[in-house]
Design goal:
6-stranded mixed sheet; single chain; 7 helices
Length: 247
């Protein structure tokens, strides 16, 4: 069994320091790794990244993250990622990692993702160059995510994104903004590999649980949705939600 703690949209800055830390100190006793589904900072500055490194660094378990749209706001995303890597975190963007955890190999492929919408109500690569660029961004990210998922040799496979791969976990958000919250292309990428669990954030008013068309469990772990420092999910146990604990 592998236990994964997960959260997203923590939006750390100097005013948040200390808010998550008490629960994070308990991580080694309840989880084998922590996955964070983007929006690590509020405005994507180096200073906020340093606060994130202080709050979520040195936890005694591996920490794997993807960036979110907030982490790109100040056009310092490369520097933000560098600060987090210097603090010992793994930052994924279209690539993957395999963690050796208690005799099991956990594969994680991650990407921020992007928008575009879902089957029946999605953007298409047609018309103005601006629209083609918008859809092309999602297509390229989804292709990289799928390739990374398929390339990992592991016992349990997890997809980590910021944007949503399915509309079910957006329920509660206005329908009008679904195209800016995720894309069905991410779901197709997840279904292209034997993925055991997909984690995302971004939808603060969404719903926790959904599934891809191929049946992969999807969990929206945005902090405003799960309403605690992290959820814990179990892999190789038959029920990913069996490990849920109050923190």
């Amino acid at each position: 069994m592998i236990r994964i703690a997960a959260v997203g949209d923590v939006h750390v800055d100097k005013d948040v320091l200390g808010r998550y830390r008490p629960a994070l100190e308990e991580l080694p006793g309840v989880a084998d790794a922590l996955l964070i589904a983007g929006d690590l900072t509020r405005h994507g500055t180096v200073e906020e990244a340093e606060c994130m490194a202080t709050e979520f660094g040195d936890l005694g378990v591996p920490v794997v993250v993807v960036l979110g749209n907030h982490d790109h706001q100040s056009d310092q995303q490369d520097q933000v990622a560098g600060v987090l890597r210097d603090a010992g975190m793994t930052v994924l963007e279209g690539d993957g990692i395999v963690l050796e955890l208690h005799g099991h190999r956990l594969g994680i492929a991650g990407a921020k993702g992007f928008g575009g919408g879902f089957a029946g109500a999605c953007a298409s690569s047609f018309g103005e160059r601006e629209m083609k660029n918008f859809v092309g961004t999602t297509e390229a990210i989804a292709e990289r995510l799928g390739a990374s998922l398929r390339a990992l040799d592991c016992d349990a496979l997890v997809a980590l994104t910021h944007y949503a791969p399915v509309p079910e976990t957006l329920a509660g958000e206005p329908l009008e903004i679904y195209p800016f919250l995720g894309s069905y292309l991410l779901g197709q990428a997840i279904d292209s590999a034997p993925t055991a669990l997909a984690l995302h954030g971004h939808a603060h008013h969404g719903t926790e649980r959904g599934r891809t068309p191929g049946g992969v469990p999807v969990r929206n772990v945005s902090h405003p949705v799960i309403k605690q420092a992290y959820n814990v999910y179990q892999l190789l146990s038959g029920d990913v939600d069996a490990g849920l604990v109050a923190v």
